Amino acid sequence: MLSYQHAYHAGNLADLQKHALLAWMLDYLAAKPKPLTYLETHAGRGLYDLSGPESEKTGEARAGITRALAEDWLPADHPLRQALDVIRGRFGPNAYPGSPLIAREFIRFEDNVHLAELHPAEHEALRQVAGFAHLHKQDGFAMAQAVCPPTPRRGMMLIDPSYEVKSEYDAIPRQIGLIARKWNVGVIALWYPLLTDLRHVPMIMALRTAHPEALVSEVRFPPARPGHGMVGSGMFVINPPYGLQDEARRIEALYKRL
């Protein structure tokens, strides 16, 4: 079983970019009076405690969401800010939502949600907070292939792997290609790290070639600690909603201050 635990990194600068764009997309989709499906291939535990020992050990949240809120990176009417305010009202001021709980704030009764998480402990933690969803204790790409095209067909998928296994970089373009062919109307969003060893570059080049109309948004930031290989964060979005590019550019401009 893989060992990655997002509790050490929740609320960091990568999460901030990913979740700001995710919340914006969900808010846009939910604004229309049509049902939708939301899927995640690597859901995690759904809720994190930024006062916990894991978060305190790395300090990544202080450089991410804590700084962003202090410096008003997110206006009061931003979908992520609004979702965070509701979740902290429910779970306390140090709570930070993973993407499943962010999605929960935009999902309506008529919508359908599928969340996959293979890690036993993370899956059990997710089960405690995600009663609104169909939970799948299986490989996320296997879930996606089985569910797509979903009902309702309108909606989006977030693909957010841990990238612990280097072969994921090679496998992801093929997996996304299969999903996109089955679900050609779906918004398919992939998060990926920007790494000093450039391991991510062939993956993104392959995705750009296969999906030239996709939105690509990347931000750069200082490494979390000396020698740390991640120096940025990217989102690759097939069928991006109208206006997403403007929000992505706004977020990118914020990171240029760092």
UniProtKB/TrEMBL annotation:
Its EC number is 2.1.1.266. SUPFAM superfamilies: S-adenosyl-L-methionine-dependent methyltransferases. Keywords: Methyltransferase, RNA-binding, rRNA processing, S-adenosyl-L-methionine, Transferase. The record marks 4 as: Interaction with substrate rRNA. GO terms for biological process: rRNA base methylation. It catalyses: adenosine(2030) in 23S rRNA + S-adenosyl-L-methionine = N(6)-methyladenosine(2030) in 23S rRNA + S-adenosyl-L-homocysteine + H(+). The active site is at residue 160. One of its GO terms (cellular component) is cytosol. Gene3D superfamilies: Vaccinia Virus protein VP39 (3.40.50.150). It is an enzyme of class 2 (transferase). S-adenosyl-L-methionine binds at residues 19, 42, 99, 117, 139-140, 160. The keyword Zinc does not apply. GO terms for molecular function: 23S rRNA (adenine(2030)-N(6))-methyltransferase activity; RNA binding. Belongs to the RlmJ family. Specifically methylates the adenine in position 2030 of 23S rRNA. Monomer. This is Ribosomal RNA large subunit methyltransferase J.
